[in-house]
Amino acid sequence: MKEDMVKLISAEGFEFVIDKKAAMVSQTIRNMLTSPGSFAETEHGEVTFPEISTTILEKICQYFYWSLQYAR
């Protein structure tokens, strides 16, 4: 996976590979990916959401791209 991409994994195990800039719309994901130390999220660019279903995570990803494009 490219360094400018991030993998978000839903509760069911579906993987969404999105642009890191889009993922950084979320302050929570930004903190997970940029926190100091050797966390799996930081090292592999992957964030697992065991509480978030695939359909909801898909909408979240769509929102990230929408926000990146229009919310400036």
Characterization of the model:
This protein is an alpha+beta fold and 72 residues long. Helix content is 47%, strand content 18%. The protein is built from 4 helices and 3 strands, in the order ββαααβα. The protein has helices at residues 20-23, 27-34, 40-44, 54-70; strands at residues 5-9, 15-19, 46-48. It has a 3-stranded mixed beta sheet. A hairpin with a 5-residue loop joins β1 (5-9) and β2. It is globular, with a radius of gyration of 12 Å. The termini are far apart.
Overall pLDDT metric: 90
β content, as a range? Answer: 15-25%
Low-confidence stretches: none
Strand order of the largest sheet: 2-1-3
Helical/strand content category: alpha+beta
Distance between the termini: 28 Å
Characterize the overall form.
globular
Q: Number of helical segments? A: 4
Question: Can you write the helix and strand succession as a string?
Answer: EEHHHEH
Main pleated sheet: 3 strands, mixed
How many beta-strand elements? 3
Q: What helical percentage do the residues reach?
A: 40-55%
| Rg calculated over all Cα atoms | 12 Å
Compact summary:
Pfam families: Skp1_POZ (PF03931). By secondary structure, this protein is α+β, with helices and mostly antiparallel strands.
Supply database-style keywords.
single chain; 72 residues; alpha+beta; three-stranded mixed beta sheet; 3 strands; 18% strand
Strand and helix map with partners:
Layout: E1 5-9, E2 15-19, H1 20-23, H2 27-34, H3 40-44, E3 46-48, H4 54-70
Parallel strand pairs: 1-3
Antiparallel strand pairs: 1-2
